[in-house]
Amino acid sequence: MDPAQEAHNREAFRQAVVNTLERRLFYIPSFKIYRGVAGLYDYGPPGCAVKSNVLAFWRQHFVLEENMLEVDCPCVTPEVVLKASGHVDKFTDLMVKDEKTGTCYRADHLLKDFCKDKLEKDPNLPAEKAAEFRHVLAVLDDLSSEELGAKIKEYGITAPDTKNPLSAPYPFNLMFQTSIGPSGVSPGYMRPETAQGIFVNFKDLYYYNGNKLPFGAAQIGQAFRNEISPRQGLLRVREFTLAEIEHFVDPEDKSHPKFPDVAKLEFLMFPREDQVAGRSARRIHLGEAVAQGIVNNETLGYFIGRVYLFLTHLGIDKDRLRFRQHLANEMAHYAADCWDAEIECSYGWIECVGIADRSAYDLRAHTDKSGVPLVAHEKFPEPREVEKLIIVPVKKELGLAFKGNQKMVVEALEAMGEKEAMEMKATLESKGEAAFHVCTLDRVVTINKNMVSISKEMKKEHQRVFTPSVIEPSFGIGRIIYCLYEHSFNTRPSRDGDEQMNFFSFPPLVAPIKCTVFPLVQNQQYEEVARQIARSLTAYGISYKIDITGTSIGKRYARTDELGVPFAITVDSTSSVTIRERDSKQQIRVNVDEVASVIKEVTDGQSTWGDVLWRYPTHSS
């Protein structure tokens, strides 16, 4: 199939899914009566139920299974916290403006759309031009502001709505700014992620955990990003739900006792070597990926495996799920390894979960800014003799030389690593002075021999004090749910074959309503039986919908199939009823007093539909 036809089919499929979701109130644009606001959506009753089921399973699969410590921190965050984490200075996207109307666009999105459009819709595109566009798409995230601007100019890209010329790209901070309290002197931001709340509470959580590592802390909550030009429906929004885990480990031991439980899993992985060589994702055994060093360590590998199981249990198609390793230029300098769980939908491959080994960066950053040591301790059975680096800045000499900058130079000298310190010591002894780069001043200064003393001494230590590493799986819940909607959406011909009927094939685990109860005809006896069944379902904690309208049973089935309800109970006698399964449309006959327990059994996953089909007589309508 040619690319243009493929793009058209994807668009038509997406439209069918979105129309169904909006019509059945899974979600709708927020403030619709006021013409809505881009990037903000309301979840309706079935959407709320799906989200609630996904989060309940997330808690069960991660928080309960790993005995994690769950916290709930405020959305409003003081500026100092996000200054320490780097968000105030670096949490930006490059933006361009329509020079006449002032409308803003994300620069990389305009370039991406242009290249994809050419590749999909221009049949006469020369091979070398096609290769160039593909290369631009591959390196898009790595382009600087200047390179992005040059490409936009070179390709003659203009504002999509007006065709007016565009400004040069410039950075825009994505955080929503606010002030805490009425005076306006305490600036804050709506948090762009939930992780910082866990990092700043590390000391208390470590104490709560009996001063033991490793441990995981988890948080589910709202995050906010002031997207420049949000599009792609639920995939790119300005307020969204994140579920994040911060798993704290000893940097010298990243093994995981439960890694053997997931080591035999095999799924699509996309290591950086394969991406650079232009190869496709391939199936790899997780155990082999860790053994060969493709995945940095066992704990990171363990969480990759658990994320795979979580997503596939929800109903994500395992053939449209891959784990892509970040390229070297995508990773922060402090990160040891990062993988994204990407799910394929009509918008392409979408990052839905990030799993990163962030080393000790976050705890160190908050230690430096707050002055509170966020560290762990390992007590030795016997005291150990260790060689310690001793750096003593001579503050009087440094004060005379650097005046107001003395404090920054002292801090920089004290923060030197062993290699840098010993090199400086050798230079000072041979030359009497050494050049030294002070990061906080962003300049090189000259240090004389009389300004600092550097030595090594043997000391007895009873414990090791260290900053833990953190492995962070971060889940975009809205993105996972949207991809689940697409993966579960199906059509089939109606009974008389004159129209296509939509249905969602959700697993019972996430279905918004577990079953419906229909009296076959409007009849007082049948309605009383339906109410009796409803009471039993409520007692079992099973969500249901009762429909006593006189509409034909076929239409009632179609209505609930479109909500993804897995089971329909039809009351056609006072002693027994039928249970219909949504995907196969098969029916079994069950006694009235057994029906609620059968539904409980299959919705809880204790039995499959195949198991109960074998135990009860089938019914043909």
Automatic annotation (TrEMBL):
The family classification in the record reads: Belongs to the class-II aminoacyl-tRNA synthetase family.
Please provide the record's keywords in A-Z order.
Aminoacyl-tRNA synthetase, ATP-binding, Ligase, Nucleotide-binding, Protein biosynthesis
Organism (species): Datura stramonium
Annotated Aminoacyl-transfer RNA synthetases class-II family profile domain residues: 152-493
Question: Which Gene3D superfamilies does UniProt cross-reference here?
Answer: 3.30.40.230, 3.30.720.200, Anticodon-binding domain (3.40.50.800), Bira Bifunctional Protein, Domain 2 (3.30.930.10)
Q: What is its EC number?
A: 6.1.1.14
- Its name, as the record gives it, is glycine--tRNA ligase
Say which enzyme class the record assigns: ligase
The record's annotation in PROSITE patterns points to: AA_TRNA_LIGASE_II
What SUPFAM superfamilies does the entry give? Class II aaRS ABD-related, Class II aaRS and biotin synthetases
InterPro entries xrefs? aa-tRNA-synt_IIb, aa-tRNA-synth_II, aa-tRNA-synth_II/BPL/LPL, Anticodon-bd, Anticodon-bd_dom_sf, Gly-tRNA_synthase/POLG2, GlyRS-like_core, tRNA-synt_gly
List the coiled-coil residues: none
Enumerate the NCBIfam families for this protein.
Answer: glyS_dimeric, PRK04173.1
Keyword DNA-binding applies: no
